[in-house]
Amino acid sequence: QVRLVESGGGSVEVGGSLRLSCAASGVTYSRYCMGWFRQAPGKDREGVAMIDTIGGFTRYIASVKGRFTISQDSAKSTLYLQMDTLKAEDTAMYYCAAVNGYCYTLAVRDFRYWGQGTQVTVSS
Fold this sequence. Notes:
Layout: E1 3-7, E2 10-13, E3 18-25, E4 32-39, E5 46-52, E6 58-60, E7 68-73, E8 78-83, E9 92-100, E10 113-114, E11 118-123
Parallel strand pairs: 2-11
Antiparallel strand pairs: 1-3, 3-8, 4-5, 4-9, 5-6, 7-8, 9-10, 9-11
């Protein structure tokens, strides 16, 4: 069973930066698609970015492209999300997720394993 544990959330001012981490354990397959999702109060959970753990393919939603960077450290089984130039609308609970195999879509329904989330609050 894959277990995902997020960390690195917190409060920051508009224009600031945060780096989220996701430690993965119980990884048994050779290939995963891993992603970051977020959910703001009263809104649906949405995909933010994803990465193929073998090929390194990445995808971002338009609203974070150029500001967020998803990366991985395979040796540490850790996924990262570097968030720069943060905006108030980035405020949300951020979740790490994974699914066996290739990356296809950045959709909640396509990811099987989920962490508990870490809160990011951006204030002006």
